[in-house]
């Protein structure tokens, strides 16, 4: 596909006799936001772990800018331009915001112009000297995204970026994804909040029982009766 920066091809994953993913293929173009949705047990966590290199697929390939990175470690993937955030905050409480930004790019005794500029763009410029455990939950999640962006990724994987956020914090995250990421970097977002999905994504892929059940524009996917049955119906009770 033209301008495609990332692709998984025919990815399957077995855990013993259990098939967590079954022949999943999808791609992301530069600047595009692709949302991955699906009910519990759909295979989203397994997909995230394969994309980020936590473990390899039983079959299939993972490609970054056309190069096969299936066997590469998470660290090597990051160096090549595939960064991620985590569903559960993974910051170090005793360290400051500035120190976390330094850690993200592995160097420097000062924040540096680019990192300071990035913090300003993300609304965290005034928090640089603060320990991260004094930040709100929303600002901690935004810092994690800033750290991932500091590595200058070609593809950014956001794993449940609005988990645990208030309505106001979620609105801020939506704005940052749209203004700071969309159109600038390929983004894969794993998200259960359908409002976030519809406001941020260009395309949506639905996983169900480890396979791709539907894919298309947010509007088309959310009108799909199968999607309503598989995902929206099960989500209605949450």
Automatic annotation (TrEMBL):
InterPro entries: AAA+_ATPase (IPR003593), ABC_AA/LPS_Transport (IPR051120), ABC_transporter-like_ATP-bd (IPR003439), P-loop_NTPase (IPR027417)
Alphabetized UniProt keyword annotations: ATP-binding, Nucleotide-binding, Transport
Keyword Transferase appears in the UniProt entry: no
Record's signal peptide: none
SMART domains listed in its UniProt record: AAA
CDD domains noted in UniProt: ABC_Mj1267_LivG_branched
One Pfam family here: ABC_tran
Domain ABC transporter: start-end pairs: 6-234
UniProt protein name: ATP-binding cassette domain-containing protein
Gene3D superfamilies xrefs: P-loop containing nucleotide triphosphate hydrolases
UniProt GO cellular component terms: plasma membrane
PANTHER family in alphabetical order: CONSERVED COMPONENT OF ABC TRANSPORTER FOR NATURAL AMINO ACIDS-RELATED
One GO MF term attached to the UniProt entry: ATP hydrolysis activity
């Amino acid at each position: 596909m033209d301008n495609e920066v990332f692709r998984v091809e025919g990815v399957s994953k077995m855990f013993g006799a259990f098939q967590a993913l079954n022949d999943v293929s999808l791609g992301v173009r530069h600047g595009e936001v692709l949302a991955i949705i699906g009910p519990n047990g759909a295979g989203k966590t397994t997909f995230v772990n394969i994309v980020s290199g936590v473990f390899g697929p039983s079959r299939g390939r993972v490609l970054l800018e056309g190069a096969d990175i299936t066997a590469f470690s998470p660290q090597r993937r990051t160096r090549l331009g595939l960064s991620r955030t985590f569903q559960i905050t993974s910051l170090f409480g005793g360290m400051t915001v500035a120190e976390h930004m330094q850690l993200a790019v592995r160097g420097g005794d000062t924040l540096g112009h680019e990192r300071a500029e990035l913090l300003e763009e993300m609304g965290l410029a005034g928090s640089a000297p603060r320990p991260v455990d004094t930040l709100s939950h929303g600002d901690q999640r935004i810092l994690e995204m800033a750290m991932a962006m500091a590595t200058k990724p070609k593809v950014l994987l956001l794993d449940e970026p609005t988990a645990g956020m208030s309505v106001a914090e979620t609105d801020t995250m939506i704005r940052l994804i749209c203004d700071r990421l969309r159109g600038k970097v390929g983004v894969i977002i794993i998200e259960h909040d359908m409002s976030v999905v519809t406001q941020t994504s260009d395309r949506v892929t639905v996983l169900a029982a480890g396979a791709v059940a539907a894919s298309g524009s947010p509007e088309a996917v959310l009108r799909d009766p199968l999607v309503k049955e598989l995902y929206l119906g099960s989500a209605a009770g949450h």
